[in-house]
Design brief:
By secondary structure, this protein is of the alpha/beta class. The protein contains 11 helices and 12 strands. Strand 3, helix 5 (109-122) and strand 4 (127-133) form a beta-alpha-beta unit.
């Protein structure tokens, strides 16, 4: 049986406030308590644990090595307590009134909306808030607990994700683009001499610029703008093949004949912010997403096998271009 804790959450909260606010007076103001109450809470903590949390250096108090460990553990403890309280409230209320998702913009929009439509047929009263994210924006939404569920290309540390699908990317430009007019196989060095169209990272760090090292690059926030710019001959980019199917068929875009690197694969994962505390709504929507992706990919894999096309090996189904339905994706 676990022994009863000697330190209360309020005492741990007082310790964190003193460190985060930069002093006892500031902590007291942040906690809406008297300074003496905050001082007593920290001193009581030190007394019960028989440790020294702060040491005075010059005129300022600094955390001791032991204090730094306790600070980190206390922060994690209070965060977990907050998550537990929120989860308890959601479980007590039954189905969540709102679901929040972060989905990378490379996930097929038509497929996501089909999932939403199916979920709405079962739970029409549940609100959905969608964050359409790029690169670190998806990870950030999970780490900051802004969302209940995410679909992204990377799994942040401390999270677990299930393989969902694999997307095929191709390098493409307008058929009259100078790169196509070279009339030969292209190298990455050829590409670096021309304008690279990229999508801006939606995370707070805002990683941007050409990862290829191109001399020129234009950065956009939306995939539709990037596709339209490429279709006007303003640059080249790697696009999810299913996303530019229409442009390829109508001659607005053409795959670049790269010697190497013209085809790339990106794996997408389905990640819960906290699987243990996920509500019934989040669990059901995740189930619908898995079923919908699996159904589409089974359908398209069957078509590929009938046509003799090779299916790429992957733990997740793959969405490509060649064997997909009009306006959809193939697997």
């Amino acid at each position: 049986m676990t022994a009863n804790p000697r330190i209360s959450l309020e005492q741990w909260r007082a310790l964190l406030a003193v460190v985060d606010a930069g002093g006892y007076a500031q902590a007291a103001e942040a906690l809406h308590k008297s300074q003496s109450a905050v001082t007593y809470a920290v001193q009581k903590l030190e007394s019960l644990l028989e440790v020294k949390v702060f040491e005075v250096v010059g005129r300022k108090a600094h955390l001791t090595p032991t204090g730094e460990v306790l600070y980190r553990r206390a922060k994690a403890l209070l965060e977990e307590a907050s998550v537990l309280e929120n989860a308890a409230g959601s479980l007590a209320a039954g189905w969540e009134p709102e679901l929040r998702l972060a989905v990378e913009i490379i996930f097929p929009t038509w497929l996501l909306l089909q999932c939403f439509e199916r979920f709405a047929g079962e739970r029409p009263q549940t609100r959905i808030e969608l964050y359409e994210t790029v690169l670190s924006g998806t990870e950030e939404a999970l780490l900051q607990r802004k969302v209940d569920l995410a679909i992204g290309s990377q799994i942040p540390p401390g999270f677990a994700g299930d393989p969902l699908m694999r997307l095929r990317f191709i390098a493409a430009a307008h058929p009259d683009h100078p790169l196509h007019r070279l009339g030969r196989e292209l190298t990455l060095q050829d590409l670096r001499k021309h304008r690279h169209l990229v999508i801006r990272d939606s995370g707070s760090q805002r990683r941007s610029g050409s990862w290829l090292g191109a001399e020129q690059n234009w950065t956009f926030s939306h995939k539709a703008t990037s596709i339209h710019a490429a279709g006007m001959g303003l640059g080249f980019a790697w696009f999810p093949e299913e996303m530019v199917r229409g442009e390829l068929e109508h001659g607005l875009l053409k795959a670049l004949p790269l010697r190497e690197g013209g085809e790339r694969w990106v794996d997408l994962y389905l990640v819960f912010a906290d699987r243990d505390y996920a509500g019934p709504g989040a669990l059901r929507l995740a189930e619908i997403i898995r079923e919908s992706v699996s159904g589409e990919c089974s359908k398209h894999k069957g078509k590929q096998l009938e046509g003799g096309a090779a299916v790429p090996a992957s733990a997740a189904p793959a969405i490509g271009y060649a064997e997909s339905e009009p306006g959809r994706g193939g697997c």
